[in-house]
Amino acid sequence: MPASKKTATRQADSRTSPRAVRAAKASDAIALLKADHKAVDALFADYAKTRTASRKKALVQQICIALTVHAQVEEEIFYPAVKAALKDRKLVPEAVVEQATMKALIGQLEGVEPDGEMYDAKVMVLAEYVKHHVKEEHGELFPKAKATRLDMVALGAQLASRKAELMAASS
């Protein structure tokens, strides 16, 4: 194959690779939020398999930071935009209340040593709570948000920028 064809093939492959597709979609607000959901779900799955207190503590720290940052960017940027676009008086307020409860559970876990069954129970309740919240977002809020005239790419850029700031501050 001539060099120019090889180069063209490599360029096409790089644009259609799963990584490239994910990168392109990551600029979409909903794709970005869904990626956060998936990452936190993986952390909870790791926690469920972990037996050592030090590893549990490290995972809970990651979970708490990820959820706190995720909730903050949703509440600062995504929810207000969606609420205005939908003229919503139900879905977004409910999501905000759910996140307040999630933050209360996070507050009970932050800085606490993994000391047995109550710690594990709090983490598992947090995981169930997050799973419920995610199911509602994926099933109701996100489809309705997609149907609006919101520029999800511009919104995604705002989310990504703010998330980067918050993650840097939490390091």
Keywords:
171 residues, mainly alpha, 0% strand, elongated
Provide structural commentary.
The protein has 171 residues and is mostly helical. The protein is 85% helix and 0% strand. It has helices at residues 3-16, 18-26, 29-49, 53-86, 91-109, 117-146, 152-170. Helix 4 (53-86) packs antiparallel against helix 7. The protein starts with a helix and ends with a helix. The model is unreliable at 1-25 (pLDDT under 50).
Blueprint of the fold:
Layout: H1 3-16, H2 18-26, H3 29-49, H4 53-86, H5 91-109, H6 117-146, H7 152-170
Please state the structural category.
mainly alpha
The averaged pLDDT comes out at: 86
Could you give the count of β-strands?
Answer: 0
Q: Can you count the helices? A: 7
First-residue to last-residue Cα separation: 48 Å
- Helical proportion? over 70%
Largest sheet: none
Measured by DSSP, the beta-strand proportion falls in under 5%
Nearest-angstrom radius of gyration? Answer: 19 Å
Order of helices and strands: HHHHHHH
Give a short overview.
This protein has helices at residues 3-16, 18-26, 29-49, 53-86, 91-109, 117-146, 152-170.
